């Protein structure tokens, strides 16, 4: 990261750009025409980054480290015969964790890599992750598992295929094993599998009903109009859409993980139990299955060297721009084939597609993406230069380190030099379009999950695949941003501070639901910032102006008092005059998040407020394993209701802290009195009502708190009516498939029994 930043600083000095913006191609041309000596230095620096960042692998030391981790895994795995119940689960998952580390560490030390996969297959199979165990066997074979032991893996695959009810695969593996000479024990296993195969064949299992996929996009509720007055295109309802109904769905053809997160690069799954890494790019890319690895192979072929050099993390948002260009170039090329032979002509061809009218709901994503709005024309010189430097670095990378140019040169009459200009200009333009249009997708994960930690392998959490232990749902306590996606249809929604949509991400897909009834012809708004109840008018204004270049004139912003709803979550009763006030300065509203909190004074009597209890409350939360501390904390929170009014942001924040601290203590086995659950239940209901008031009960933020309440119900310590439970259960249907599976299993295992 340092090398790239240093190079950009020097390149910035070399690139004196002070011309008015025409378009991205013209800016790129400017640096291509800088004085020869400067240009030489500029190019040297670009290439220096590519050379300097290359991290060759020391295969021997990788192998050594990987072997040591695998052997630790073996030690743990060996103890399984003495274990049962949760202890057995722990043993298998901790072995799987160590084998996973061994696989990641091995990189291209293939002798170790294949053994790591083979051993993980064994532990995962025992635990019941049959699909993943099957894939691991396949990986072990791919990476050179010793020939004389391959029958073990084939037997394992046959077993997994049987468990998965896949007669075809089972038949293939059984046929293969029948050709081999096996010892008595393996022969016995084979005979059993032969019988199972006959049973499967004579009694084929009903085709598993696959969950409805989002591949089929829903757009019939919406139309796109254009505003001649500068707001560009916008989305309207083509018919009445009732609150909670789907407004539209979209599936991103390209996305990237945010901040180097290890999610599947193909399907964006964020809960992996058996990550399959690329062996070349230093544990920076993983897949949830071999199929996903296969589907992503072409794009990764272009990115692998950049990952290997760790170029994509420091390049930040440009990574999505790069991926968009890599993804769509094959679709753009046929249009460019007859679109001229110079960079200028090809550029013009793309721009004419971008400025044409299309039927937006059905236009392909590669066309919609070309047409996305951007504001590079309003950017200052430093932003333009940074954009050029990043785009140049990526273009040179593609030229020097990949075979991406092959298709460009084979499909068009343009020269490599023309493509240098065009590609850099296209990356720069795409990046700016994405800054204005890209979306970030979240996942519900434990707050303390490490970057290279895989939650499905976490200790003390699971009792079976996708089945949590009693009282552990609260561990999924946070919505975390995990991916940036290109969703150009969603991007056609203009902004309002009170959105019409509640959007839920699932892998590469988004489903947007109506936040309230929407009438035919009414505009459908997204909210680009926190909504009007969660952030101040000034903050939203600043963000919208800086990033999106417009001033919001939505119904919430044009009111005489645009902050009235935001202030409703910051009302105090003065400790002296007992009048109600909101702190005078915006910066004072979230004082508890400041490193050096300001003194808050009542705006009626000016008396300074004493918030020393805040620190004390945090200390109590940290000691929630002790009953006295918990009782004191319940009391303080109850007392605060007189001073932090209604759904005060701070009171909600403290309530969440206390809930999580108590549930963590309870899950760790600390005894709780029955009366305490009454307190906790009330506190959870308070936070749920606050979340509903501030964001809505159909927003993803509602789910983690609901999960806490589920734990209480699951322990039999809190009662809800059947109707209430049914309503909460219905919310789980919004969740991403992988998370839904966990939450629904939990509901069925532990909540449903309490309904009877
Ligand atoms: C994600 S795009 C929305 C679609 C865009 N109108 C288009 O035609 O492509 C964001 C851009 O649309 C414009 N925009 C969005 N909401 C707006 C609003 N409420 N008022 C004015 N301009 C808005 C701004 O130029 C903003 O940068």
Automatic annotation (TrEMBL):
Annotated protein name in UniProt = SET domain-containing protein
- Give the SET domain ranges: 220-529
Coiled coil residues, start to end: 176-203
Q: Name one GO cellular component term.
A: nucleus
Report the domain of life of the source organism.
Eukaryota
Gene3D superfamilies found in the cross-reference section: SET domain, Tetratricopeptide repeat domain
Write out the GO MF terms: histone deacetylase binding; N-methyltransferase activity; protein methyltransferase activity; S-adenosylmethionine-dependent methyltransferase activity
Q: Which PROSITE patterns match?
A: SET (PS50280)
Keyword list (alphabetical) reads: Coiled coil, Methyltransferase, S-adenosyl-L-methionine, Transferase
Give the species this sequence originates from: Drosophila virilis
| InterPro entries attached to this UniProt entry | SET-MYND_domain_protein (IPR052097), SET_dom (IPR001214), SET_dom_sf (IPR046341), TPR-like_helical_dom_sf (IPR011990)
One GO biological process from the UniProt record?
methylation
């Amino acid at each position: 990261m340092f090398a790239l930043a240093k190079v950009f600083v020097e390149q910035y000095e070399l690139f004196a750009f002070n011309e008015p913006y025409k378009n991205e191609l013209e800016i790129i041309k400017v640096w291509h025409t800088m004085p020869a000596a400067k240009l030489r230095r500029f190019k040297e620096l670009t290439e220096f980054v590519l050379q300097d960042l290359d991290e060759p692998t020391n295969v021997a030391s990788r192998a050594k480290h990987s072997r040591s981790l695998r052997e630790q895994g073996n030690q743990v795995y060996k103890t399984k015969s003495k274990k049962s119940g949760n202890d057995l689960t722990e043993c298998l998952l901790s072995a799987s964790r160590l084998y996973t580390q061994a696989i990641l560490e091995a990189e291209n030390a293939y002798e170790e890599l294949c053994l790591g996969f083979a051993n993980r297959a064994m532990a995962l199979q025992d635990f019941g992750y049959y699909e993943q165990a099957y894939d691991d066997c396949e990986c072990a074979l791919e990476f050179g598992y010793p020939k004389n032991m391959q029958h073990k893996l084939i037997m394992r695959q046959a077993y997994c295929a049987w468990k998965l009810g896949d007669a075809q695969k089972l038949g293939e593996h059984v046929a293969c094993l029948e050709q081999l000479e096996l010892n008595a024990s393996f022969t016995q296993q084979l005979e059993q599998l032969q019988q199972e195969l006959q049973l499967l064949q004579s009694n084929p299992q009903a085709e598993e009903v696959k969950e409805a996929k989002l591949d089929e996009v829903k757009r019939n509720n919406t139309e796109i109009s254009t505003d001649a007055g500068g707001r560009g295109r916008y989305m309207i309802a083509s018919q009445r859409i009732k609150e909670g109904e789907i407004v539209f769905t979209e599936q991103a053809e390209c996305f990237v993980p945010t901040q180097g997160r290890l999610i599947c690069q193909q399907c964006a799954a964020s809960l992996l139990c058996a990550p399959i890494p690329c062996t070349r790019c230093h544990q920076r890319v993983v897949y949830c299955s071999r199929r996903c690895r296969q589907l992503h192979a072409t794009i990764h072929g272009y990115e692998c060297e950049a990952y290997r050099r760790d170029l994509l993390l420091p390049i930040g948002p440009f990574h999505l721009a790069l991926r968009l260009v890599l993804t769509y170039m094959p679709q753009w090329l046929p249009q460019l084939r007859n679109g001229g032979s110079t960079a200028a002509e090809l550029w013009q061809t793309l721009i004419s597609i971008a400025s044409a009218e299309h039927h937006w709901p059905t236009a392909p994503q590669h066309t919609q993406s070309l047409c996305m709005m951007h504001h590079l024309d309003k950017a200052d010189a430093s932003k333009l230069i940074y954009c050029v430097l990043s785009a140049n670095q990526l273009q040179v990378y593609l030229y020097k380190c990949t075979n991406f140019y092959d298709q460009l040169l084979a499909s068009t009459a343009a020269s490599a030099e023309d493509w240098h200009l065009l590609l850099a200009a296209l990356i720069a333009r795409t990046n700016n379009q994405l800054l204005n249009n890209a979306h970030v997708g979240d996942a519900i994960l434990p707050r303390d999950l490490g970057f290279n930690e895989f939650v499905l392998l976490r200790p003390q959490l699971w009792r079976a695949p996708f089945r949590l232990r009693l009282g552990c749902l609260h561990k999924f306590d946070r919505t975390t941003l995990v991916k940036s996606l290109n969703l150009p249809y969603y991007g056609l929604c203009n902004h309002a501070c009170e959105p019409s949509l509640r959007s839920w991400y699932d892998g590469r897909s988004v489903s947007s639901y109506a936040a309230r009834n929407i009438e035919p012809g009414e505009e459908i708004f997204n909210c680009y910032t926190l909504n009007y109840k969660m952030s101040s008018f000034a903050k939203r204004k600043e963000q919208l102006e800086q990033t999106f270049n417009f001033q919001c004139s939505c119904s919430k912003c044009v009111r005489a008092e645009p902050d009235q709803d935001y202030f409703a979550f910051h009302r105090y009763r003065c400790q002296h005059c007992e009048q109600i006030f909101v702190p005078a300065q915006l910066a004072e509203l979230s004082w508890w998040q400041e490193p050096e909190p300001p003194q808050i004074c009542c705006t009626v009597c000016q008396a300074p407020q004493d918030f020393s209890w805040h620190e004390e409350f945090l200390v109590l939360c940290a000691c929630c394993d002790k009953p006295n501390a918990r009782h004191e904390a319940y009391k303080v929170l109850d007392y605060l209701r007189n001073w932090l009014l209604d759904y005060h942001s701070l009171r909600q924040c403290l309530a969440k802290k206390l809930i999580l601290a108590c549930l963590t203590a309870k899950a760790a086995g600390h005894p709780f009195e029955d009366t305490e659950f009454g307190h906790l239940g009330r506190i959870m209901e308070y936070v749920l009502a606050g979340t509903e008031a501030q964001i809505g009960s159909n927003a993803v933020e509602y789910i983690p708190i609901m999960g806490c309440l589920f734990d209480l119900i699951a322990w039999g310590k809190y009662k809800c009516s059947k109707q209430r439970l049914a309503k909460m259960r219905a919310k789980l249907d919004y969740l991403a498939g992988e998370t839904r599976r966990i939450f629904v299993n939990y509901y069925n295992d532990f909540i449903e029994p309490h309904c009877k």
